[in-house]
Each structure stands twice: as C-alpha cells, then as structure tokens.
Amino acid sequence: MSEKPDSAQRPALKNDRYLRALLKQPVDVTPVWMMRQAGRYLPEYKATRAEAGDFMSLCKNAELACEVTLQPLRRFPLDAAILFSDILTIPDAMGLGLYFETGEGPRFERPIQSAADVAKIGLPDPEGELQYVMNAVRTIRRELKGEVPLIGFSGSPWTLATYMVEGGSSKAFTKIKKMAFSEPQILHALLAKLADSVTEYLNAQIDAGAQSVMVFDTWGGVLSPRDYREFSLQYMARIVDGLKRESEGRKVPVTLFTKNGGMWLESIAATGCDAVGLDWTIDIADARARIGDKVALQGNMDPSMLYAPPARIEKEVADILAGFGSGSGHVFNLGHGIHLDVPPEHAGVFVDAVHRLSQPYHQ
Ligand code: 1CP
Q1: Among 197, 226, 337, 360, which residue's beta carbon has the most beta carbons within 10 A?
Q2: What's domain 17-37+252-363's architecture?
C-alpha cells in the first residue's frame, strides 16, 4: 500500500495559482480554498463517514480519506485540496488514547499531567504509527491527477499541547496555564518534543507528496504577547527552520496561522514562513501594510458570513479583495473553519465570487 513517491511519474500541475500566490508570483485570479472544506456541511461527507464507522476510521482508511478530500473539489472550483486528517493524529500516535465523545469533541484517555508523563512520550515514526497519514497523502496525490496542489498540515506544538494537557477541548485552558506558569520546564519539555515530531511529520508529508504545508495554531491567541512568544511562536519558528522547502523541483511554501494572532503579525512573519493566515478580526489592508512586503496573506472572511444571502457574501468578498488591493500575495480563505450548518450552495457563491471579482486586481 505504501508505494514510494515517484515524482517522475506525476503529472504536471494544471492549476498552480495557490502555490504561486503564496510565493507572491503573478496569478490570473486570486486563488481560494476553505478551512475545513471537507466535513459535515456536505451530505456526501456524512455518508462516507457513516461508511467508515467513525471519524478516526475515516482518517485511517486512505481510500475513504481521499474520497472526502476530493468531495468539495467536485462541487466547487477550489484552487487547493487539503489532506483529510486531524491535528490530533500526533498525540494519538504518542499513546494518549484519542477518542471522540458524540457531541463533545476529542478526548484523551491519558492526558499529560507530570514530568514523568512527558518523559514517557516518544517521537512517533511518520512511516510507522502515522503511516496511515502518509498513505492518505500518496493516495490523494495520485487521485488529484495534477488538477490542484495538495496541502499537508499539522497543529502547532502549543495547540497540540492544549489538548494533551487539558485532556480534550477547553474554554479557559486552566490546566495548561497552571503548568506554564508554575512548572514551565515540564511544558517546555513537551513543546520541544512536539516541535521535533511536527517537523518530522510535515517533512514526511512533503516526501509523500504534500506541495505546501500549513501549521494551525488555533489556540495561540489565548496567550499574552510574552507568553505567546515563549510557548507558541518560538516552537513554530523551530519547525519552519527544520522544514524541507523544496520538493519535486518546486518550492514548498509554509503557512502559519495563529487564530486571534492579529497583534503579532510582524513576529509571525519574521519566523521565515512564506505566508501568514489571518482570522477575520483584522482588516486585511492593515495586515498587508504591516507584513505584505515580507510574506503572502491567507484569509480572511468571517465563516459566519456564509449564512448570509448570496449578495451579502459577494459584497464581503469584494470588500476583502479591495482591502488587499492589486497584485499577487493573497490566498482567499475563511478566517477559520466553515460551520457545519451553512448551505453548501453558499460556499459555491463564495468561491465563484473570489474568482470573478478578483480579475481586475491581477491585470
Ligand atoms: O466528522 C466528525 O464528526 C469529526 C469532525 C472533524 C473533522 C471533519 C474533526 C474532529 N476533525 C476534522 C477534520 C480536520 N481537522 C481537518 C480536515 C481538512 C479540511 O477539510 O480542512 C483539519 C485541517 C483539521 C484541523 C483541526 N482539528 C484543528 C485546527 C484547525 C481549526 O479548525 O482550528 C483543530 C483545533 C482540530 C481539533 C478537532 N478535531 C475534531 C474537532 C471537532 C476538533 C475541534 C475541537 C475543538 O473545538 O477544540
């Protein structure tokens, strides 16, 4: 099942505007994809998930993971595919016992509570415990047939640690903050292991065929500016330093996304990443003025805008395009994941509007 990547046999990329925009090279129209573009807002996803049995079985079945990756691309002219998997694959492979409680989100049977718990953790082998992810990457690349590039991803060390220490999703992050502020050496030992593991995992995804990678720092924005640098940014910078930046004769762009990280754009851009993901709480014109000379920007429509009537969605797309202005360096996206109860047709309106309304900005 784990055929070796063979770039010589791979078809040339037909639509590379997503990769070009991340490198600020000229494009014909602004590329667009949607965070969480595969998922429960699509009836065909629910059917495939039911066939798999549960969410992790879906992730572990390369053919079905490939199927749900491609589903949104059959409906909408998206400019990139994103691997169907989850950020919690690494903690699961580290032996924490991931499970999903219906309606409750992810949970761990054995959360991290002590220095001894951290010491016990080994780095998972990307072609061992995590081989199912690499098999999904290889299968998706084969089935994409060069139509659009494939994005690989991971959670940031801080974001993964929040789930591992809290034992699941959290609102107040009390356990991990207690650890950060009273026993910081334990948390740093965990974050260092996670940074090494994420680096190996993303490099293996690149070897398996991912053409760009993104780090999701969903919970970095719950930290103070100083604590963000110490517990999140520093480890993402270490990952950026350790990543392969070229594969199959092309650059492999890296995008960092800290939700609620608008205050810290300059320091995120200074890590050496190629692009910075923006949530909707920042004006993209301000973001471009601050860091647009260094990096590309990805974002940033409020995902709740997809509840609005089509004309309102189109106006929002037009306003964000005008905010970014002319030239390359913008990948249109939602500022966070698509909600599970938006009408799929509204996602289509959004994608079409980006392509149609962005033409004048690329002449
Ligand atoms: O079908 C289901 O019931 C499971 C829901 C689900 C899905 C569809 C989970 C559980 N994960 C996923 C897929 C997923 N997760 C993708 C797929 C690719 C895509 O189409 O975009 C990606 C990129 C993720 C990444 C992810 N998982 C993040 C980072 C991005 C973000 O949204 O902030 C986070 C924080 C997770 C954790 C997670 N996994 C699943 C859920 C419900 C959650 C969030 C729990 C929470 O709110 O704390």
Answers
A1: 197
A2: Alpha-Beta Barrel (3.20)
